[in-house]
Design goal:
The structure holds two protein chains of two kinds. By secondary structure, chain A is mainly β. Chain A has no helices and eleven strands. In chain A, strands 2, 4, 5, 9, 10 and 11 form a six-stranded mixed β-sheet that branches. In chain A, strands 1-3-8-7-6 form a five-stranded antiparallel β-sheet, with no helix packed on it. Chain B is mainly β. In chain B, strands 2, 4, 5, 8, 9 and 10 form a six-stranded mixed β-sheet that branches. A four-stranded antiparallel β-sheet of chain B has the order 1-3-7-6, with no helix packed on it. Classes of the chains: A mainly beta, B mainly beta. Chains A and B meet through strand 4, strand 5, strand 9 and strand 10 of A and strand 4, strand 5 and strand 9 of B.
Chain lengths: ~110, ~120
Amino acid sequence: GEDVEQSLFLSVREGDSSVINCTYTDSSSTYLYWYKQEPGAGLQLLTYIFSNMDMKQDQRLTVLLNKKDKHLSLRIADTQTGDSAIYFCAVSNSGNTPLVFGKGTRLSVIA
Amino acid sequence: GAGVSQSPSNKVTEKGKDVELRCDPISGHTALYWYRQRLGQGLEFLIYFQGNSAPDKSGLPSDRFSAERTGESVSTLTIQRTQQEDSAVYLCASRKGLAGSSGANVLTFGAGSRLTVL
């Protein structure tokens, strides 16, 4: 089955850019998502991208997709302390199939 | 309701006891998912309800796990004869209808029910 991998930890200084990486194994994955989880809260959808796109930008967030390498990244510009959270990459191969999640990357922002 | 509501938020139980976890999805959301999040792990899919269709139970880890949903409203996840490895946060998510015109599976998650089995 699909396997989604992420590095577990990332630490950045406030104001720097953060880049969170994700790799997946199923080349038929057509929808790729980034979720954010703050302590004690549910997952919040940040953004998603279709496999026919290479890049999507939404304010401080930039998603890059390298379909050939099955690599997805989330860049957060001007990282703030409020961005400290766990970020999950998730993929699915159709709109209704259950999402397959990575283990999450814990982002720590140092003031 | 305004969001996906789950209860209890925390449950501590003894090994061998049965537990019920409840999810109240956003009103009008026909799709409902249960996921399990073990400490330091990603989310594991458990079960998916879509309207009146037969649920997708392919993620349930054993026959001790079951879930029900009444129409398009509340869902309960039941774990019988709990084991220590069942300790996790159980997350519920809902979606309005089938995947949208964009095709994306945009889910709204609840805050989860943290289960600790002693």
